[in-house]
Amino acid sequence: MDFSDCTRIIIGCAIEVHRRLGPGLLESACEHCLRYELRSKGLRVDCEVPIPLTYKEIRLEAGYRMDLLVEHQVVVELKAVDRLLPIHEAQLLTSLKFSGKRIGLLINFNVPSLRQGLRRFVL
After folding, report:
1. What is the extent of the structural domain holding 44?
2. pLDDT by residue (tens digit) across 55-94?
3. Which of 13, 39, 77, 104 has the smallest number of Cβ neighbours within 10 A?
4. Number of domains making up the chain
5. 44 with 73: CB under 8 angstroms?
């Protein structure tokens, strides 16, 4: 599956979760529902994937984690906040950089229309 198809399915599933539940839920609840939707579409979804940091010759388990990794290729960072901030974007970009992945989605479920809470990043 290519990046475009994968991100299209992820966004469609996120819209479905938001349409059914609306804004105001905890991030963890949104994550569980989105995982369910993605897996029902036959996608592989890994959760809370650790990302090690390599500094010179040492490997550090610095506590970085991806919320979701879909089909081994798309990093999904989930939020349930009043508005997305630059720190949220930086968090996703850091995950992309350290994991070696190229495509990421930042999804904020606490918005009236999910399209307002979607951002796609390509390294």
Report:
1. 3-122
2. 888 888 877 899 999 999 999 999 999 999 999 999 999 9
3. 39
4. 1
5. no
